[in-house]
């Protein structure tokens, strides 16, 4: 985290966010925007927040199954680490919350951080393939309005790109896992020009990571990972649908699924922490395709983003406090400092 103000990627993300925010607000009528907010049915929003928080608990449950080859873990610790990690993802750049999430759990369960982080790579792969399944369902169930053919083609291209990316990751993990010793020797040769201290830190960390890439031999746990993955993303679609209903729209559920897929693509674009701008643009232009007025579309985008942003930050900060940690402490002695070693025990 040190040196982020000078990080080109950080400032590139800020620039992209500013561009999309400016693009969205340049032709918005402020009075109409406020009127859209005033007409919202708050009850739907409250339920949407509850469903969103529930999805993080299901994420923690799926993580437990992915961690099972490494040993038993306590669900309370998994929930706490998950919420802290997603809170950090919303506040820090470059998805640093993933490292924090692994480090917090490793600290509580006295596990190797590299091995725990490996399970989060599997976690992300499960998310990616589930989203591809949802994209397929969207393409088969949603009738896009006339003139939106380019959007459908864009979704197909994006789906192929995602499939290619995740396919490469899977192949790389399989090859590295099967040739672990050879991979470590090759990495060691690559690091020879660098200081020995770097090699002494990197090689054990990579070895620990590859040791964590394990699939449970029990088919029951494969099914559990699959079912929880579907549940996680169904619980992600429901708040979108509830917010649209809060603004008085009764679109088919497939429209909410369509918006969610667009949001997944949007968060892949470099942006500021919290995906400001890109997230909102995906939601607004998705809703505009279905005839939603621009001001209402933007207000809905702001609410959907807020539901996924504010509650997890609030709960994550509480979990961080209960762990006796702070973001400053993580920068000094945790994963953001490069030590990556668990401390503090259970």
TrEMBL record:
Statement: the UniProt record of this protein carries the keyword Cell membrane: yes
One Pfam family per UniProt: LPG_synthase_TM
Taxonomic superkingdom: Bacteria
Main location: membrane
The entry's keywords: Cell membrane, Membrane, Transmembrane, Transmembrane helix
UniProt name for this protein: Membrane protein, putative
Lipid bilayer topology: Multi-pass membrane protein
Organism, scientific name: Geobacter sulfurreducens (strain ATCC 51573 / DSM 12127 / PCA)
This protein's record includes keyword Membrane: yes
Xref: InterPro entries: L-PG_synthase/AglD (IPR022791)
Subcellular location(s) per record: Cell membrane
Transmembrane regions listed in the UniProt entry: 9-28, 40-58, 125-144, 150-176, 222-240, 246-267, 274-292, 298-321
A GO term from the CC aspect: plasma membrane
């Amino acid at each position: 985290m040190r040196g982020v103000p000078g990080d080109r990627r950080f400032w590139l993300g800020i620039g992209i966010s500013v561009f999309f925010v400016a693009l969205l607000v340049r032709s918005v009528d402020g009075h109409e925007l406020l009127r859209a907010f005033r007409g919202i049915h708050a009850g739907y929003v409250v339920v949407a927040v509850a469903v969103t928080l529930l999805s993080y608990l299901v994420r923690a449950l799926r993580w437990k199954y992915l961690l099972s080859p490494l040993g038993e873990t306590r669900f309370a610790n998994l929930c706490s680490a998950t919420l802290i990690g997603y809170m950090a993802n919303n506040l820090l750049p470059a998805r640093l919350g993933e490292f924090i999430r692994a480090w917090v759990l490793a600290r509580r369960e006295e596990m190797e951080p590299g091995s725990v982080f490996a399970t989060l790579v599997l976690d992300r792969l499960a998310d990616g393939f589930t989203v591809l399944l949802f994209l397929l369902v969207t393409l088969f169930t949603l009738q896009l309005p006339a003139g939106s053919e380019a959007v459908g083609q864009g979704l197909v291209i994006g789906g192929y790109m995602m499939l290619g990316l995740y396919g490469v990751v899977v192949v790389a993990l399989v090859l590295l896992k099967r040739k672990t010793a050879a991979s470590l020797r090759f990495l060691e040769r690559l690091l020879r020009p660098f200081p020995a201290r770097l090699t002494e830190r990197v090689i054990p960390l990579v070895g620990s990571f590859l040791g964590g890439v394990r699939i449970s031999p029990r088919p029951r746990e494969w099914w559990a990972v699959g079912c929880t993955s579907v549940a996680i993303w169904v619980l992600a679609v429901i708040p979108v649908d509830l917010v649209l209903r809060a603004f008085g729209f009764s679109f088919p559920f497939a429209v909410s699924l369509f918006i969610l897929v667009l949001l997944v693509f949007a968060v892949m674009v470099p942006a500021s922490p919290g995906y400001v701008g890109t997230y909102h643009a995906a939601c607004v232009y998705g809703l505009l395709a279905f005839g939603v007025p621009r001001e209402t579309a933007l207000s809905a985008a702001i609410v959907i983003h807020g539901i996924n942003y504010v509650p997890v930050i609030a709960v994550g900060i509480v979990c961080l406090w209960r762990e006796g940690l702070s973001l400053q402490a993580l920068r000094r002695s945790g994963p953001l400092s490069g030590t990556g070693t668990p401390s503090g025990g259970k």
